[in-house]
């Protein structure tokens, strides 16, 4: 009598989509419409489609298109989560990704149809190991923000230096010295002024608008395929 085949291993992707709302980091959650945990808030995720997805990152990008209606300008592989205990349906592997998206790029209809932005300090109990995945994403983003241009992906395409500093402070969760911050930006050499573009700050003198230099955009998009 032939030996019974082992049960299949479930293979999925989960995406931690982070954005800034009212100066605080928020994560996108969706209502699960199927068991297990039907009706619970969870990270956007789904099975890898072997016949459709070229790799796990393509699966994550498809999940974002299907469940949030967008293509993230920044998508980075975080880690692999696996084991018998993380999913009641059986032994599973989930490849987790982090996406950074400015709030204005989030489609309004996505937030009106079973999705919500929730502050990272106000998360409900999440199914599977999604709470752990969110914490890994926050640690990764905050760590990289100490030495790279990563928070720029939470900004509009053009921004002033005070606006950029405010984004860094929101991500890191602490105030930054203005002089030290600007010195660090100069050392990184990642920004360029937008010719002739100024931001009017009401009673204040118009401020120069900046953007990320093209070579840094290319570098980050390449490194985003997983570290």
Automatic annotation (TrEMBL):
One of its GO terms (molecular function) is catalytic activity. Residues 8-140 form the Nudix hydrolase domain. InterPro entries: NUDIX_hydrolase-like_dom_sf, NUDIX_hydrolase_dom, WH-like_DNA-bd_sf, WH_DNA-bd_sf, WHD_NrtR. It comes from Paracidovorax wautersii. SUPFAM superfamilies: Nudix, Winged helix' DNA-binding domain. This is 8-oxo-dGTP diphosphatase. It comes from the Bacteria. It holds the Pfam family WHD_NrtR.
């Amino acid at each position: 009598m032939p030996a019974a085949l082992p049960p299949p291993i479930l293979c999925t992707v989960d995406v931690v989509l982070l954005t800034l709302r009212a100066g605080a980091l928020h994560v996108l959650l969706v209502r699960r419409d199927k068991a297990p945990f039907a009706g619970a808030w969870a990270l956007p995720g789904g099975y890898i489609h072997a016949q459709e997805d070229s790799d796990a990152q393509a699966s994550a990008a498809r999940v974002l298109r299907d469940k949030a209606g967008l293509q993230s300008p920044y998508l980075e592989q975080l880690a692999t989560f696996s084991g018998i205990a993380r999913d009641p349906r059986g032994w599973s592997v989930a490849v987790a990704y982090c996406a950074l998206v400015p709030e204005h790029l989030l489609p309004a209809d996505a937030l009106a149809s079973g999705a919500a932005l929730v502050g990272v300090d106000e998360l409900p109990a999440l199914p599977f190991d999604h709470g752990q995945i969110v914490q890994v994403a926050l640690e990764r983003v905050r760590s990289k923000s100490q030495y790279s241009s990563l928070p720029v992906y939470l900004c509009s395409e053009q921004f002033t230096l005070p606006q950029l500093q405010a984004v860094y402070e929101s991500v890191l969760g602490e105030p930054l010295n203005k002089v030290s911050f600007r010195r660090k930006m100069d050392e990184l050499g990642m920004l360029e002024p937008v010719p002739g573009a100024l931001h009017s700050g009401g009673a204040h003198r118009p401020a120069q608008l900046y953007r990320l230099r093209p070579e840094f955009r290319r570098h980050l998009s390449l490194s985003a395929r997983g570290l």
